[in-house]
Design brief:
Strand 2, helix 3 and strand 3 form a beta-alpha-beta unit. The mean pLDDT is 91. The chain has 2 domains: 125 residues, 3-Layer(aba) Sandwich (Rossmann fold); 264 residues, no CATH class. 40% of the residues lie in helices and 20% in strands.
Length: 399
């Protein structure tokens, strides 16, 4: 069972709202959703399956009816956001049938923001974002519970990795956190999976969910992104490489973010003088596309932190955001987790256990976060001047 199971169960049975589960293509949403109806009476419908689609459209208020199931049914609607009127449909379904059914909605688009306009679903659903496997979830073997901020702080007391953490981290780093290549554990399977996933996102999802038609140019842009991971992204440079307008590139990046192909981390909007405010960094949900070891490791850490921030927000622990910090003197720290714009965790990711980053020391003094970390791929742990140096296998096992 995936780590979002408790939150989804609580939404459906205690809060009595619709549960939305969104995440990247092939992250395991369908498998998870089917597991949630294996424990209760339920029915599964996928908008991509023609017979399911026709059944929904012909009988929108009782398409799930089955004389063999009880009065309370858990209905899974997979990829329903591809229906142009999906928000209106769900609002009507919930308002008219919410007492008879529990509604679980899954999709590879951003269900919370994807389509503007139409009837609002505010107050009728809770969102849970499902991410690729992190080290903590892999080690938990289906029993992971998201740690609260206080529990994370307590977990930082030990800088020694738990048993099996180093080997599991090697596995995720080489094979991604997506279930199919991760558990197949073969490089050839990873390469085939990567090509198929890229084709699905660029050729099908973009076509179905947007009006974008320049798929060939977007494919070129995607091939340019891995070498730009880890640095502030110059949209103007991409524009020049592709020969298109600035706003066009920005729109394409936004569409790929909504489809969970990539995600952006923006600079921290604090009050420090001479810090960058505009250029975002771009990271990929499949970090194995990146050749540079340093950038690949930074992307891997970014994926773990994004999952943590999304899970904390989805569970109501706070209003967390993920940023980086960089000033005009080129001092930079890779990540800053903030809670309501207040610095909470400042983190630098490095391949080896070398001296503590001068930029980390500099911004620690000026931002005064609750936690200051240097996470190293290879090395031992220590504490110095209020900064914890921690092996990646020990830190990422908490996430």
């Amino acid at each position: 069972m995936r780590y979002v199971a408790d939150a989804v169960q609580e939404t459906l049975t205690e809060e009595r709202k619709m549960a939305f589960v969104s995440g990247p293509r092939q992250v395991g949403k369908t498998t998870f959703a089917k597991s949630m109806i294996s424990i209760v009476e339920g029915a599964y419908f996928n908008w991509d399956i023609e017979t399911h689609r026709r059944r929904i459209l012909r009988a929108p208020e009782h398409f799930w009816d089955d004389p063999d199931v009880g009065a309370k049914v858990r209905v899974v609607l997979d990829e329903i956001h591809k229906y142009p009127r999906w928000k209106r449909f769900l609002k009507g379904l919930f308002d008219s049938q919410g007492r008879r059914i529990e509604i679980l909605v899954t999709g590879s688009g951003r269900l919370d923001v994807y389509q503007k306009g139409g009837d609002s679903l505010l107050g009728r659903y809770a969102l849970a974002r499902l991410h690729p496997f992190t080290l903590g979830e892999l080690l938990a073997q289906g029993r992971q519970r998201i740690l609260s901020p206080a529990e994370i702080e307590a977990g930082l007391a030990s800088t020694r990795p738990q048993g099996g953490a180093d080997e599991a981290l090697d596995q995720i780093e080489q094979l991604t956190g997506f279930p199919e290549p991760l558990f197949a554990a073969r490089a050839a399977r990873l390469r085939r999976w990567r090509r198929a996933r890229r084709e699905l996102v660029l050729r099908e999802d973009l076509r179905d969910l947007t009006r974008i038609r320049e798929i060939g140019l977007i494919d070129q842009m995607v091939s340019l992104l891995p070498e730009r991971v880890g640095s502030p992204l110059s949209i103007n440079s991409l524009r020049e490489d592709l020969g298109v307008a600035f706003d066009t590139v920005r729109g394409w990046l936004g569409a790929l973010a909504r489809l969970y192909y990539l995600f952006e981390i923006r600079p921290f909007p604090g009050k420090l003088a001479r810090t960058l405010r505009r250029e975002a960094k771009v990271y990929l949900f499949d970090h194995t596309e990146i050749e540079s070891p340093g950038a690949r490791f930074e992307n891997l850490v970014a994926l773990h932190l994004l999952k943590l921030v999304d899970a904390w927000n989805d569970r109501g622990f706070g209003d967390y955001t993920l940023h980086y910090v960089r000033d005009k003197e080129r001092r930079e720290v890779d990540f800053l987790v903030a809670d309501r714009r207040r610095p909470y965790m400042l983190l630098e990711a490095k391949l080896s256990d070398e001296d503590i980053s001068p930029s980390l020391r500099y911004f620690k003094e000026r931002l005064a976060p609750r936690i200051s970390l240097q996470v190293v791929r290879r090395g031992s742990g220590r504490r110095q001047d209020g900064i914890t140096v921690m092996p990646a296998a020990a830190f990422l096992a908490l996430l």
